[in-house]
C-alpha cells in the first residue's frame, strides 16, 4: 500500500510507521518537525507542514494516489480542548474529498462512544466527569469522520500502553458488557490492527472497538 500518516512522530504513529515500512509499504509521514522522526528508509517520504494549514495537507494529498490516510494526531492535554486538532481533521477530510485518496482511518477513543457507559464504572462516571473536554473533542472529530463523504474507519481503542506487540487483541463493532475484558491496548498491537484495515473492508464506514 501507499499510505500517509498524520501524527507519525507520536507513540502510535511511530509504531505504525515502523510496522508499515517493515511490511514493505510506502509511507508518507506528514510532520511538523522532521528531526523528531529519527528514521530514514527508502520507502519513507517526509513532508513537513502544519496540520491546521489546509494548503499544506492539500498539496501532499494531490501529489500521488494513496490507499489509506491514517489520522493518529493526539492532544497534549487530557483536560483542555484542542481546536487545532479539530481543524487538522477538517483539513484532512476536505483535502481527501477532493483527491484520489483511499480510506481515512482515524484513531479516536472508546470513551467517546455513546454506549461507553456499558464498559463499567471508569467509562460511565470517571472519564466523562474528568475528561469532559477530551471527550467533547473526540466526539466532534468522530462526527466529522462519520458525516464525511469518504470511506472511513473510526478506530476506538481504550487506554493505550507501550507494551510489546503480541497480536492478542479483539475487535468488534458493537460494545458488549464483559467484566473480564482488560480494556487496554498496546500501541504496537493497535498499529498492527490499523495497518490491516488499509486493505480490509470489514469495518468500512463503521466504528470499531479494539482491545486486549
Ligand atoms: N493516550 C491514550 O491512552 C489514548 C487512548 C485512546 C485513544 N487515544 C488516541 O490515540 C491517538 C494516538 O495517541 P498517542 O498517545 O499514541 O499519541 P501521541 O504520542 O501523544 O502523539 C501525538 C501526535 O500528534 C501530533 N500533534 C499533536 N498536536 C499537534 C499539533 N498541534 N500540530 C501537529 N501535530 C500535532 C504530535 O506531533 P509532535 O510529535 O510534533 O508533537 C504526535 O505526532 C490519539 O488520537 C489519541 O487521542 C489515546
Quick overview of this protein structure:
The chain has a single domain, classed as 3-Layer(aba) Sandwich (Rossmann fold). It has helices spanning 11-22, 54-63, 83-98, 121-130, 132-146, 187-197, and strands spanning 2-6, 26-31, 44-48, 68-71, 103-107, 152-156, 159-161, 170-172, 184-186, 206-211. It has 212 residues and is an alpha/beta fold.
What does this molecule look like?
The structure is a single chain. The chain contains six helices and ten strands, in the order E-H-E-E-H-E-H-E-H-H-E-E-E-E-H-E. The chain has helices spanning 11-22, 54-63, 83-98, 121-130, 132-146, 187-197; strands at residues 2-6, 26-31, 44-48, 68-71, 103-107, 152-156, 159-161, 170-172, 184-186, 206-211. 40% of the residues are buried. By secondary structure, it is α/β, with parallel strands linked by helices. The protein has a single domain, classed as 3-Layer(aba) Sandwich (Rossmann fold). The radius of gyration is 16 Å and the shape is globular. 35% of the residues lie in helices and 21% in strands. Helix 3 (83-98) links the parallel strand 4 (68-71) and strand 5. The strands form two sheets. Strands 3-2-1-4-5-6-10-8 form an eight-stranded mixed sheet, sandwiched between helices. The chain binds NADP nicotinamide-adenine-dinucleotide phosphate. Residues 7, 9-13, 32-33, 36, 51, 72-74, 76, 84-85, 107, 109, 157, 159-160, 187 line the site of NADP nicotinamide-adenine-dinucleotide phosphate. NADP nicotinamide-adenine-dinucleotide phosphate is lined by residues 7, 9-13, 32-33, 36, 51, 72-74, 76, 84-85, 107, 109, 157, 159-160, 187. Residues 7-197 form the NAD(P)-binding domain. Pfam families: NAD_binding_10 (PF13460). InterPro entries: NAD(P)-bd_dom, NAD(P)-bd_dom_sf, Polyketide_Oxido-like. This is NAD(P)H-binding protein. GO terms for molecular function: biliverdin reductase [NAD(P)H] activity; riboflavin reductase (NADPH) activity.
